[in-house]
């Protein structure tokens, strides 16, 4: 049977098709990496690494242009970190609610609803942020900075809006991954904990969550990746001026930098935008490497 | 036997999926090549239309062949590219080349005789006119300053506008309006509108923007929805959702711009050495094409104002 299968033309064709598909995928990854490095590094050399990565002035069209993207990098890092800090606890507790607290009927309603959040296109998040969040933020801004001489009013398009939108956007990713990893925790563990006299809440936080740790961390890292790579929604709510990432400042992220300036940029300005892309690419790669290492460790631990 | 059938089915499905994937790739590739193909199709259609028109009028001499070279203003790139595409579709044997080196550099190249046409997005200077360059204004670029509907300040001086955009004035009450913070909205670096706006007000790279948006529509929407906002857009897109501010008492209208009363506007000049009538046949044909209905349509289609 085995020998026969090897010679079977259908078998061989199928194998080759699968092989070709794999080659296409690998080719795509390699060519994107090579392209980003080839396009992104020349500007680093032309502008100078410290001036570009640690400069704070972004004036690409001035007579003496300066291409400092430090504020942009910081905005991306701060925005991602804070949105994860807000989004992850909410997502984690939602996951706990769905797996261990809610009755099955309720969970059957809530979980698809959360999953649906993931299917909503980011432009919709941006639109809602622009129409609902920004006006609210502007009211808040007016109250906080009433009478301020130095603050530049941004009309509510600021870092805080971006963080809130991002925090909501990463919810479904973190919830879904956490739910499946919490569900995978053996009921024997729960039973043992309860039998030892621990309450339900104690069991959840001291036994179940630690046992599901690696899966939850995977969800968190995926959430970070989503927040870091989001462009459209942020572009609509963050204001888009290059500033220090303070809550009520209009800010620009690495992604929105590319989106907003690519269309008309020329010469060195354009090359620097590719460098911005490269920086973003490197960040995403680092996140992915962390993710892979985590998965490996999880497998080893099991 | 049953196993074999299953296997065949699986293989067939795999093959089908692969074909699907490849087809997907193929159609992607198509979309990429589609654009030029479509453009050329459109162009052909246009040419046919134009030819029919030309035959009717009996003027256009489509048998001409040769090269027209232009150099100059980067701001005029959009106009030049659109005009060249439309022109070369009608005159397939004429090649038009254009470099975007900047207005002054363009007029310099014209004076040296290295190009036929020098593009300038400002009026020619006297020294340039003395050098023999003739100012042919083909289009006018106008920028409107807009505020939200609730704003009571409807008239600004150029100086006030400069102060708003450089961050010296931060509240409408300083300009005689309500006590409302000014939200300064502009376009992203590299945008032609931003370039023109800052250049005309002489506040290049001195602007303190609260928001930098990447589209005209975005500016319009944000200004309309944000109390105390101010922004700038091409004149042709201004609508009822915002107030168009008077500048030094002059309303931003096409008439005022053509008359030269409104300061936030600039001419797009295609300068030649000597009058158009003294140019070679090709250049004359180029200018008569710009003057023709098709050429004027190109100008208005990209949001510019006709000079006459």
Structural overview:
The complex is a heterodimer of chains A (302) and B (308). Chain A has 302 residues and is mainly α. In chain A, 77% of the residues lie in helices and 1% in strands. In chain A, strands 1-2 form a two-stranded antiparallel ribbon. In chain A, helix 4 packs parallel to helix 7 and helix 6 (122-144) packs across helix 7 (159-183). The mean pLDDT of chain A is 90. Chain B has 308 residues and is of the alpha/beta class. Chain B folds into 2 domains: 66-140 and 267-301, 3-Layer(aba) Sandwich (D-Maltodextrin-Binding Protein, domain 2); 141-265, 3-Layer(aba) Sandwich (D-Maltodextrin-Binding Protein, domain 2). Helix content of chain B is 45%, strand content 20%. Chain B has helices spanning 2-57, 77-90, 103-112, 126-130, 158-166, 192-201, 216-225, 254-259, 281-291, 293-301; strands at residues 66-72, 94-100, 117-120, 133-134, 137-148, 155-156, 183-187, 211-213, 229-234, 242-244, 246-247, 265-273. The A-B interface holds A 5, 8, 10-11, 13-14, 17-18, 20-21, 58-63, 130-131, 134-135, 138, 142, 149, 152-157, 235, 239-241, 250, 252, 259-261, 263-266, 269 and B 7-8, 10-11, 14-15, 18, 21, 74, 167, 170, 181-185, 188-192, 195, 204-205, 208-214, 222, 225-229.
């Amino acid at each position: 049977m085995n020998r026969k299968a090897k010679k079977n033309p259908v078998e061989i064709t199928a194998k080759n098709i699968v092989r070709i598909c794999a080659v296409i995928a690998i080719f795509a990854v390699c060519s994107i990496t090579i392209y980003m490095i080839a396009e992104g590094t020349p500007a680093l050399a032309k502008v100078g690494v410290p001036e570009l990565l640690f400069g704070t002035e972004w004036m690409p069209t001035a007579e003496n242009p300066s291409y400092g993207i430090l504020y942009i990098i910081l905005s991306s890092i701060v925005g991602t970190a804070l949105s994860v800090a807000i989004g992850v606890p909410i997502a984690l507790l939602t996951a706990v609610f769905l797996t261990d607290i809610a009755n099955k009927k309720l969970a059957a309603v809530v979980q698809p609803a959360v999953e649906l959040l993931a299917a909503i296109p980011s432009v919709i998040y941006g639109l809602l942020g622009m129409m609902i969040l920004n006006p609210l933020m502007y009211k808040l801004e007016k109250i906080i900075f009433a009478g301020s001489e130095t603050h530049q009013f941004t009309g509510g398009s600021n870092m805080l809006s971006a963080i809130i939108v991002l925090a909501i956007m990463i919810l479904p990713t973190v919830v879904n991954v956490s739910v499946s990893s919490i569900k995978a925790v053996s009921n024997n563990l729960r039973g043992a904990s309860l039998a030892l006299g621990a309450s339900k809440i104690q069991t959840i936080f001291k036994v179940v969550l630690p046992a599901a740790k690696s899966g939850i961390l995977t969800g968190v890292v995926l959430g970070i990746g989503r927040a870091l790579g989001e462009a459209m929604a942020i572009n609509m709510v963050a204001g888009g001026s290059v500033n220090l990432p303070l809550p009520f400042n209009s800010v620009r992220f690495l992604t929105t930098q590319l989106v907003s300036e690519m269309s008309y940029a020329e010469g060195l300005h354009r090359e620097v935008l590719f460098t911005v892309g490269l920086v973003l690419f490197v960040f995403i790669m680092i996140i992915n490497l962390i993710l892979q290492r985590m998965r490996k460790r999880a497998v080893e631990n099991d | 036997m049953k196993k074999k059938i299953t296997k065949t089915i699986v293989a067939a499905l795999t093959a089908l999926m692969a074909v699907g994937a490849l087809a997907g790739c193929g159609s992607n590739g198509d979309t990429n090549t589609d654009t030029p193909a479509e453009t050329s199709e459109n162009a052909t259609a246009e040419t046919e239309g134009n030819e029919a028109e030309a035959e009717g009028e009996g003027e256009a001499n489509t048998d001409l062949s040769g090269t027209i070279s232009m150099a100059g203003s980067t701001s005029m790139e959009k106009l030049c590219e659109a005009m060249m595409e439309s022109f070369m579709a009608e005159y397939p044997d004429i090649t038009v080349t254009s470099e975007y080196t900047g207005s002054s550099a363009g007029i310099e190249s014209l004076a040296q005789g290295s190009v036929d046409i020098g593009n300038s997005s400002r009026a020619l200077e006297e020294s340039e006119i003395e050098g023999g360059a003739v100012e042919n204004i083909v289009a006018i670029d106008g920028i409107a300053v807009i505020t939200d509907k609730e704003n009571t300040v409807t008239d600004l001086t150029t100086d006030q506008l400069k102060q708003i955009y450089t961050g010296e004035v931060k509240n409408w009450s300083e300009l005689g309006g309500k006590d409302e913070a000014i939200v300064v909205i502009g376009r992203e670096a590299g945008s032609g509108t931003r370039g023109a706006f800052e250049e005309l007000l002489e506040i290049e790279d001195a602007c303190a923007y609260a928001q930098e948006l990447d589209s005209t529509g975005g500016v319009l929407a944000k200004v309309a929805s944000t109390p105390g906002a101010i922004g700038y857009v091409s004149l042709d897109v201004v609508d009822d959702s915002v107030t168009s501010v008077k500048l030094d008492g002059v309303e931003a209208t096409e008439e005022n711009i053509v008359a030269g009363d409104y300061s936030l506007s600039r001419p797009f000049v295609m300068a030649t050495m000597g009058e158009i009538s003294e140019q070679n046949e090709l250049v004359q044909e180029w200018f008569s094409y710009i003057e023709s209905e098709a050429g004027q349509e190109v100008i208005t289609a990209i949001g510019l104002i006709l000079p006459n």
